Structures are given as structure tokens and as C-alpha cells.
Amino acid sequence: MPPRISRLDRIIQASQPLTQPIPLRPPMTGWNTRDDFDGMEPTDAVQMDNWYADAGGLNTRKGTQPWCAGMGGPVNTVAEYYTGTIRKLIAMAAGNIYDASSSTPATLAGGFHDSAWSTQNFSGKLFMANRSPGDAVQALTGSTVVNAGFTGPPTHPIGVFLFKTRLYFWCANSPVFWYAGLAAVTGALSAFDISQVAQHGGNILCLTNFSHDGGDGVTNMFAIVMTTGEIILYLGSDPGLTSDWQLAGKYKLAAPIDARSVAAYGGDVYLTTLDDHVALQEQLTALKVGQTPPRSKISGAVRDALVANPTGFGYQALYYGRGRRVEFNVPNVDGTYDQHIYNTSNQSWQRFQGRNGISWCEYNANLMFGRADGSVWQADIGTTDNGASIACTAQQAWSALSIPTSKRLAGARPIVSVVQNQRYTFSVGYDYKPVVVQISPPGLTAYPLWDVTRWDTSLWTADQVPVDLAVHAAAGTGTVISFALSCSALTALTWMRTDLVIEAAKQI
Q1: Which residues, including other chains, have CB under 8 Å from residue 454's CB and lie 6 or more apart?
Q2: CB-CB contact of 397 with 42 (8 Å)
Q3: Is 364 exposed, middle or buried (0-12, 13-18, 19+ CB in 10 A)?
Q4: Displacement of CA 359 from its chain's centroid (Å)
Q5: Residue 455 pLDDT greater than 80, yes or no
Q6: Share of the chain above pLDDT 90, in %
Q7: Helix (H, G, I), strand (E, B) or coil at 87
Q8: CATH of 7-62+393-504, one of 2.60.120, 2.40.30, 2.120.10, 2.60.40
Q9: Which residues partner with 487 through β-bridges?
Q10: How far apart are CA 269 and CA 263, in angstroms?
């Protein structure tokens, strides 16, 4: 039985053949602002906006659509309330707490000093601690929001965290955390002062958990993140018992930018610090053996963003399970918001723009975000931003293409899977000059329809088809070459590879 030929191979075989083709993968290893141009991998990207490197190639990001509107102010917090069969999307804006589960918000409570809340599901309730110490910890049960009734701290806590069946809290400008009784949902809190343990001083920024076994197992540790960047780890479940609460380690990193910029995923913790997006496991492993912790591939972009807007509201880290990625929200000085995206499957980075979310959460496994206009939107849905096209640009790293001398690019053929009538631009640049040499616009081939045209008589199409399989003249010479593919996407597009015809320059 002859080997099966894929649909893509059939189409390519029917197209114009290449002379000595060189196949080049698209920038699958992602955005790189750390290395100089000569130090990048050929499959890195100098720019990667609104593309996502995943299975099959480089894909345009998915779209967004409105979910709920009319909340009277910036939606600074979104969170999911989930107990039993009840799942609600909770939004905080203009000093109010809303049920935003449908298109029309319902006010649950109001009159609060701030709309930036820390939230935690526990024992059938959603506990909420306001960034403003003027508001007491609240508890949502069903559709009722009440004062949780915790006592002890001199000021109201500004953060809440769950660890081994016990609620923990921290207060503004304090090195003391407070903890409730086992499984307690109200009542007196006990204090634990970390100031005699913290080597670099400072106050508690937030609390989280960290594990070497990937979850809530025997090595799951209580992690205290200090404003200095010091990470203090404890083993145990009861801070009141010395036999069940042991210091496991202290490590010094760059300080996180905000309490929300710390996100647990599995047994690891992802943080936006003052100089990079980092994974705690990777950082601590390097520090334990005396090595300098590694920098992410986009550390340059992170540094630039933090220098430009160090006090902006909206820095946040969130693991989005359905998308298999960590989203780092970054506020810009012009009032827009970018997301630095880390694909946990292939460790690639990319940047999403145009969604402009202030706050983010998962709701019913979907990705949701609050906006400055008092609305909540759903992300990762459809192919447009509420009907508007998505501006996508990817520029591949500069490469000598395994020929260290000057060369002529005689032809190029981007292999792209695209819905018909979706236009794109493929460009070339030489020797670090702007990538402005455009290859001929793609000719959109119309193929017969699936299940309509007779079988095995012609090529057919479903939603996406490879198009423009002719070799285009590139007309340029240089030692290093870069390629870019951009589009105003209204439908999905995948950049699978680029076939090149290269002629080495003759030596004198």
C-alpha cells in the first residue's frame, strides 16, 4: 500500500516546483528581546504581536466579545464564585460588587472604598479582602455579601489566601500575617510576625504556595513574598505549633511589582518582578547551586515596560488552563494594556495587544477580563475583536540561513493556512535594515467544497486551506535575512513554514 499523502503535500506537489528549496520554520520559539540579533535562534521572533506559537505553526490570536456592561467605572477586579453547581462571575467596579454572570449586572453590595479586591473560594463562600484597609473582609454566599466577621488585626486585611484548609490574611505595610482556625470562616485571627525571620526587612506583599511535587502534597510549602523580593518558605499546616511549622528556606529575588503579579500554577509560582517575568522553581533551583538565575527571553521588554510605567494599575499574572499559557498583564502609559503570553507547552513568548483588560480571571474555564469602561469581556473566542480585525505582525529573527557569506534570495514561498479572502503581507529585509521589501500579494486560490465536489477528482477545502503556493521573486542580497508576515485578521490564519530559494554569492 503506497504511503498516504497529506492534503497539504498534494497541493504543494501540484504547485510550481522550487529549485533547491530551503524550508524554514516560522518563529515557533517565540518573541525574544533578551538576546542581540546575532545571538537569536533562527526560529525566534524580533516582533510577535497577536500571534501564538502552537501546534501546527504560528496562529493569529483568537478574538474577544462583550460579556456584561454598565458597571459605572473601571472593572478593577473579576473573580469566579464556584461552589457545588453554582458558578458566578463577580465584578468589582465603582465601589460596588456585581454579579456579572449575564449581560446585565446585578448589584450585590456597595459603598466600598476601592474596587481592587483579593479573593478566595473556601467552604462554599467567596472571601474578599479590599486593597483599601478601610473595608472589612467580605464573604459572598449565594447572592448575599456580608462582613466575614474576622477579628484581631489592627487594620482590615488587604489580602486573603487559602493553605491546607486554613484562611490566611495580610495587612498593608506590615510584616505580620494572620491566620484563622482550621476550617474557620469567621472569628478571631492569630498573628505570625515574620520580621524576625526576613533577612532583608520589608513587609508582606502576598502569600502563595510552592511545591516540589507539583501540587498540594507533602512537600507543599507556604510561601511568603516580601516587598523586598525575599521569598520565605515554611513547611507545615499550623503556624501556632512549632512541631508543625518549620522554616524551609529563604531566597532573594527582584521584588515583584504587585501582589496580583504573583500566580500559582501546579506546584510552581510565576511572578512579574521589577526586571522580568520569572518562574519560582527555575529561580530557586539556580540559587541553590550558586548560579545566576536565568532571564526570560523577553526580559528586555519587561524591563522597558516597568521603567515606563512602574506604578500603573493592572499588573497581573494568571494561568489560563484552556489556553495552556500564563498571561502577564502589563499596563501602558497611554492607558492601553498588553499581555505577555508564555506558552507552557513549548516555552515560547508572544505579545497580545488590543484587548485592554485591567483585571483577569477564569470563569467556567473561559478567560474573562474587566475594562476601564465598566464592562467585562470574554477573551479567546471567535476570530475578531467584537467584529473589528486583529492587527497581527510577526518578524522572524535575522539569520544567515547556514550560509555565512553574502547571498541572493531568489524566491520565497510562505506556506499559510488561511480562510479564503483573508489577505496578508509577507515582507523581507536584508542586513538589519527595515523589513519593507514586500513579496507579491497572495493569490487566493478557490478550491472545490468538501462533500460537494466529486471525490478524488480535484482538491477540496474546509474552513482553512493553504494558499498562494507559487514562488515569489524576492529580489534582494544580503548576509542576514529576516521575514515578516502581517495581516488585519478577520479569520484565522496559520503560518506553517517558508520555502526559500537561495543563491550563494560568487567568491572573487
Answers
A1: none
A2: yes
A3: exposed
A4: 13
A5: no
A6: 75
A7: strand
A8: 2.60.120
A9: 392
A10: 6
Helix, coil or strand: residue 160 = strand
Give residue 470's pLDDT: 60
Cα–Cα distances in angstroms (integers) from residue 336 to residues 45, 59, 271, in the given order: 23, 23, 21
Q: How far apart are CA 460 and CA 202, in angstroms?
A: 65
pLDDT band at residue 505 under the 50/70/90 scheme: low
Residue spans of beta strands (DSSP E) within 148-265: 150-151, 159-162, 167-170, 176-179, 187-188, 190-193, 204-210, 221-226, 230-236, 245-252, 262-265
User: Are the CB atoms for 297 and 276 separated by under 8 Å?
Assistant: no
pLDDT, tens only, 228-260: 999 999 999 999 999 999 999 999 999 999 999
Nearest residue to 204 (alpha-carbon basis) of 182, 180, 220, 223: 223
What pLDDT, on a 0 to 100 scale, did the predictor assign at position 56?
83
Task: Kindly report the average pLDDT of the chain as a whole number.
Answer: 89
| Domain locations along the chain | 7-62+393-504
